[in-house]
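hey
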């Protein structure tokens, strides 16, 4: 059996900021995502959370000059540069860097951007929930993480959704819009029942899920709707409502037996 060749990681070191220069090998050219100003504020609040990837700058004879170029981490470099210009950071401030010598600089820059994965909405929800439990308001969370308060509120609404459905979404069994539709009610057993029905029937559009969860009637065939010749109370209506895929049609709905009960009741009313 051949011996496995073990890899060696590049060394890291602190390099004074004024010994760093932005490399032309950085493949990022178009501005996108969090702005440099926002990133600078984040660094000011939390310090630098990710090192820069740098390479020694060589002179004409191949000797190190003491300067380092930054092919990967250009946005972080520009944010640090802005903090220096604002006199919020010394230009000689040591910056944590991973020093790379082999390979291709453009390849490193491309890989760093390609391999970056955004946070899953469920993970974002759990992080927001932890921050809120720690005393931060929804507005504070939004300001610290450069999203709108509406996004924070939307993610936190997932707390009302069944963990079982969280698991379905995490396994790509439903979309975020479908998952959010279940947040219209905190009745988690009913959420699970509705998902079981709509996932079988195929009538699983978010608006269909919301309608089934908020339906406030009972089936006409329910014996509790016919007992004593009287209609159930609003509380009984909500409790007795039977979710059935048979009430749905290819167009999204047909007259539900639940609605039939209400129509019959209306037809029996005497004119004043």
């Amino acid at each position: 059996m051949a011996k496995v060749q073990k890899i060696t990681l590049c060394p890291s070191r602190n390099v004074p900021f004024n010994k760093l220069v932005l490399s032309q090998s950085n493949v990022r050219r178009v501005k996108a995502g969090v702005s440099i100003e926002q990133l600078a504020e984040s660094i000011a609040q939390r310090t630098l959370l990710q090192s820069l990837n740098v390479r020694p700058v060589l002179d004409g004879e191949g000797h190190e000059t003491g300067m380092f170029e930054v092919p990967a981490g250009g946005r972080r470099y520009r944010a640090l540069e802005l903090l220096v210009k604002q006199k919020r950071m010394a230009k000689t401030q040591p910056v944590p860097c991973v020093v790379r010598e082999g390979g291709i600089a453009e390849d490193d820059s491309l890989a760093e951007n390609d391999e970056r994965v955004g946070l899953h909405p469920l993970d974002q929800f759990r992080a927001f929930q932890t921050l809120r439990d720690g005393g931060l308001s929804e507005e504070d969370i939004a300001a610290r993480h450069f999203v709108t308060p509406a996004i924070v509120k939307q993610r936190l609404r997932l707390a009302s959704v069944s963990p079982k459905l969280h698991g379905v979404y995490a396994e790509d069994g439903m979309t975020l819009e479908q998952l959010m539709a279940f947040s219209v009610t905190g009745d988690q057993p009913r959420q699970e029942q509705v998902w079981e029905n709509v996932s079988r029937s195929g009538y699983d559009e978010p608006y269909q899920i919301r309608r089934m969860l908020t339906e406030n009637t009972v089936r006409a065939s329910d014996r509790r709707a016919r007992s004593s010749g009287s209609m159930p109370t609003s509380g009984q209506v909500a409790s007795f409502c039977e979710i059935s895929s048979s009430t749905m049609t290819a167009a999204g709905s047909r007259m539900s037996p639940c609605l039939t009960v209400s129509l019959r009741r209306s037809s029996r009313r005497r004119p004043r």
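Residues 217-270 have pLDDT under 50 and may be disordered. Residues 215-272 form one domain.
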